[in-house]
Amino acid sequence: MKNSKLVQLLLTLNTNEWKQLNRYLQSPIVNENKDVERFCKYLHRYIAKGQLTKLSKESVFKYLYKQSAYDDSYMRQLMFNSLKTVEEFLVFMECKKDHLSKKVKLAEIYLDRNLEKHCRGVIRSIQKDKPVKTLNQVNPIQQYAILAEVQQCLEETSKPNMAQTYLQDQLIYQETAFLIKQMQIWADLLVKQNLIFSEEDALKVQLLLDYVELGKYINNPTIELYYYALRCFMNIEKGRSFFRLKAALYKHKTKLSIKNRQLLHELGRSFCVMEIEQAGNQYYLGELFELYQLALQEQLLLENGYLDIWTYTNITTIGLKLNAYDWVATFLKDYTKQLKETYSQAVYTYNYAKLLFSQEAFEEVMELLNQEYIKDMLMNISGKSMLMKAYYEQQETDILYVLLESFKAYLIKQKIIGRYTSNDLKEKSLSTSRFIKLNVYKATLPTTFAEVIV
Fold first, then answer.
1. Are residues 83 and 119 in the same domain?
2. Which domain holds residue 251?
3. What distance, in Å, lies between the first and last C-alpha atoms of the chain?
4. Phi-psi region of 7 (alpha: psi -120 to 50; beta: other; left: phi over 0)
5. Does residue 12 sit in the same domain as residue 83?
């Protein structure tokens, strides 16, 4: 537990920051979870005494919940919530230090409330401050009305050069923020439209990319990433653009918001999938795998603290295609705890069976799949297909024929036949097509898959 992100972050706090954190956690406005407050205080006790080696999740859980049986998933969720709360505390403390951003925001509030006198007073105090030297010091939520008011007040003073420099910096930052927002909108639209731009939209995106190039905004990390992501889907040197995108994801991973990182990672993975499925370029399978690994490291695939079952399955499938058996085995063990408890055991069983099947451990596959019922329809179909392949490989013809009959009944019950053509079913049931092509068990196996489902 001492190597967790939460503990490592808490170790960096000084005495004064601990005092401020305790006060922060006591406020119901920012922290409604009292377990987080008690948990952090308990950790502080061990950190202060230098006794982290004695700390464990089980001992913490016992202290917090007394007689309750240990629940690892709840403990992991508590650690995640505590980490996010401490991160928000540190951001809050940094914002308190940025006096200029607070004044600009206050001026905006006064202006929105039609308190012109109050607004002018704040702007005059901004005028007396040292002009902004770097764009990162300015709060991105600023309105042109505020900037115009700042310009008017500053131009009335005897320091016109300072006024001009200040306003110019604000306008540049505002335009940068506007470009980022536009690129985010197009990226979101791209995902929602199945990675395809209409002819009209493609023209607009091209104009946006041209504007970025002319204004040299490419030096901004967020704009750089969206720029190369959009170029990938516009087929503008797409190979080079993808590798620039990938390099920037590594380079700027600490400079972006979680929302931006999640969207950009999704675009990178989607491009790889498009190249694999549409262009038949299997090289991108390895690139897709690497992007998934990076996203796991940065915890970008979790939603409300949980990993989606199909993301979990996709990662497993890609790893197996690349023969990364040891990595997949470790992944299944470590990330099953991140699945919702309702699905975790069945989804783990299905994916572990895929791992065993890839290693040709057919007897273990049969034993595993016969023990666990998989509720998800598509996973159930895939699991039965895998089971039939395993029986075939082991030459268990009698059981195989019975399973084929039950498989037919299952498809009819789930109304699969009405939703797919027979050809689609053949593709989704690869094992059956393999039986058809061979004559080894011609006397016992149906000659076509159609005989199984008709």
1. no
2. 193-299
3. 57
4. alpha
5. yes
| Beta bridge partner(s), residue 307 | 302
Residue 52 DSSP label: G
Task: Pull the structure tokens for residue 280.
Answer: 């038949």
Q: Cα 226–100–9 angle (5° rounding)?
A: 65
Q: What is the percent of the chain with per-residue pLDDT over 70, rounded to a whole number?
A: 75
Same domain, yes or no, for 61 and 116?
Answer: no
Chain centroid, CA 22 distance in Å: 30
Q: Which residue has the tokens 């310009």?
A: 151
The residue whose two tokens read 């199945």 is: 194
Identify the helix (H) or strand (E) that includes residue 306: strand 306-307
Segment (H or E) for 418: helix 416-419
- Could you tell me if residue 289 is inside a domain? yes
Residue after which a domain boundary falls, among 247, 265, 299: 299
Q: Mark whether 153 and 69 lie in a shared domain.
A: no
Q: Does residue 417 fall inside a structural domain?
A: no
Between residues 407 and 200, the one the model is more confident about: 200
Which residues, 6 or more positions from 74, have their beta carbon under 8 angstroms from its beta carbon? Answer: 61
Based on the structure, what is the number of domains in the chain? 3
Spatial separation of the C-alpha atoms in residues 84 and 94, rounded to whole Å: 15
**Residue-averaged pLDDT of the chain:** 77
Kindly state whether residue 293 falls inside one of the protein's structural domains. Answer: yes
Query: CB-based burial of residue 394 (10 Å sphere; 0-12 exposed, 13-18 middle, 19+ buried)?
Result: middle
Handedness of CA 299, 304, 310, 312 (dihedral sign): positive
In degrees and rounded to multiples of 5, residue 306 shows phi and psi of -120, 150
Residues 248 and 282 in one domain: yes
Predicted TM-score (pTM) of the model is: 0.54
Q: Looking at the domain assignment, is residue 26 inside a domain?
A: yes
Burial of 4 (0-12, 13-18, 19+ CB in 10 A): middle
3-state helix/strand/coil string of 76-95: HHHHHHHHHHHHHHHHHHHH
- For CA atoms 340, 345, 351, 352, the dihedral sign is positive
Report how far residue 9's alpha carbon sits from residue 17's, in angstroms, rounded to the nearest whole number.
Answer: 12
For residue 75, the tally of other CB atoms under 10 A from its CB is 19
Q: Token digits for 94?
A: 């940094």
- Tell me, yes or no, whether 82 and 112 share the same domain: no
Task: Decide which of 270, 299, 328 is a domain's last residue.
Answer: 299
pLDDT tier for residue 166 given thresholds of 50, 70 and 90: low
Please state whether 429 falls in left (phi above 0), alpha (psi between -120 and 50) or beta: beta
Residues 26 and 86 in one domain: yes
